[in-house]
């Protein structure tokens, strides 16, 4: 049985769908603070909070858990700068509470949703896994603290884990059944789609004076279904006895904010209203992955690597659900 914590969220719900397609037994745990029950397409959910040890004990007693997948961290850069205490309490303290519950209930495998934010401003691009870790915001800092915690728990207690460092998760289920719906929405592609639909006045470009060819930030976008498949491959690796490690998950190609906006307009055939805005604190100028290790050791082969296809899938879901799951 796979316990998916945060399974009603954006990436977690796509993970649940992926696991069910692979005929795995799944139990979902989510407090529904940011997740959506409808994203589970009828799958059973246990409402519980990662930060409450009694909730975790109840879940582990109810399910014969083989491995935990952790998608329950807070994940907004700007919000983490405004309120770092919130991120340390949920992300770091929550991770420690989970690991202690796993030790008590003798569950020794964990797959962790980490982030490229652990690297900070990169010295080399594309970024390999052994690049120095120097986060530029509390979100990235907490993810790195969590990864280090997992490394020490692996050495001391035998809790084996694989941390998957996402670059920019994007897109939606290729069949259009589930998609991305945050409140507030801060991710580039869904904000562009909402602006095109008139659900947002404008897309704000945070900084037009970065040291990049067109002055806007450059990011590496990876399809959410490809991310989910990488988690499944990591699960197989842990079941085969792999030790604690980490992998980057990205496409190895960067697109600037302006390039993404142009791609959205090309794919949907509509104009995206934009306005320049000041830089956001904590944003690096460039984040592009080297995913060589994931492709070699996990045998990960992304199916939806083209930016236009990522946007097409996101647009198909958003057009069918203009108000998100609130429809």
Describe the structure.
- There is one protein chain.
- The chain has 327 residues and is of the alpha/beta class.
- The protein folds into two domains: 2-171 and 222-249, NAD(P)-binding Rossmann-like Domain (Rossmann fold), CATH 3.40.50; 188-218 and 252-326, UDP-galactose 4-epimerase, domain 1 (Alpha-Beta Complex).
- 39% of the residues lie in helices and 17% in strands.
- It has helices at residues 10-21, 53-62, 77-82, 84-104, 138-157, 188-196, 224-239, 257-268, 292-297, 307-320, and strands at 2-5, 26-30, 45-47, 67-70, 109-115, 160-166, 168-170, 203-206, 218-219, 221-223, 245-249, 255-256, 274-277, 286-287.
- The protein has a seven-stranded parallel beta sheet, sandwiched between helices. It has a three-stranded mixed beta sheet with strand order 12-9-14. A two-stranded parallel ribbon has the order 7-10.
- Strand 5, helix 5 (138-157) and strand 6 form a beta-alpha-beta unit.
- The protein is globular, with a radius of gyration of 19 Å.
- The relative contact order is 0.15.
């Amino acid at each position: 049985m796979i316990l998916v914590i945060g399974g009603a969220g954006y990436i977690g719900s796509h993970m649940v769908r992926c696991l069910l397609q692979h005929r795995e037994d799944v139990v979902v745990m989510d407090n529904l603070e940011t997740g959506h029950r409808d994203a589970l397409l009828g799958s059973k959910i246990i409402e519980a909070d990662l930060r409450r040890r009694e909730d975790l004990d109840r879940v582990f007693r109810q399910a014969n858990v083989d491995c935990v997948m952790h998608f329950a961290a807070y994940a907004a850069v700007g919000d983490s700068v405004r309120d770092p205490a919130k991120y340390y309490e949920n992300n770091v303290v929550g991770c420690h509470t989970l690991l202690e519950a796993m030790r008590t209930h003798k569950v020794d495998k964990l797959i962790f949703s980490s982030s490229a934010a652990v690297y900070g401003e990169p010295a080399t691009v594309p970024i390999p896994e052994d690049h120095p870790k120097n986060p530029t915001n509390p979100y990235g800092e907490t993810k790195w603290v969590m990864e280090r915690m997992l490394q020490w728990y692996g050495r001391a207690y035998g809790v084996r884990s694989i941390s998957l460092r996402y670059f920019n998760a994007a897109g939606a289920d290729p069949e259009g059944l589930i998609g991305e719906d945050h409140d507030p929405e801060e991710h580039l592609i869904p904000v562009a789609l909402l602006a095109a639909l008139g659900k947002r006045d404008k897309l704000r470009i945070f900084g037009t004076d970065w040291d990049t060819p067109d002055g806007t930030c450059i990011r590496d976008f990876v399809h959410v279904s490809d991310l989910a498949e990488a988690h499944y491959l990591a699960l197989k690796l842990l079941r085969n006895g792999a030790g604690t490690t980490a992998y980057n998950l990205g496409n190895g190609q960067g697109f600037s904010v302006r390039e993404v906006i142009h791609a959205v307009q090309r794919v949907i055939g509509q104009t995206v209203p934009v306005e320049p805005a000041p830089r956001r604190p904590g944003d690096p100028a460039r984040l592009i992955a080297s995913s060589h290790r994931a492709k070699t050791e996990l045998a990960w082969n992304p199916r939806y690597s083209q930016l236009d296809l990522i946007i097409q899938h996101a647009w198909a879901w958003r057009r069918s659900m203009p108000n998100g799951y609130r429809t």
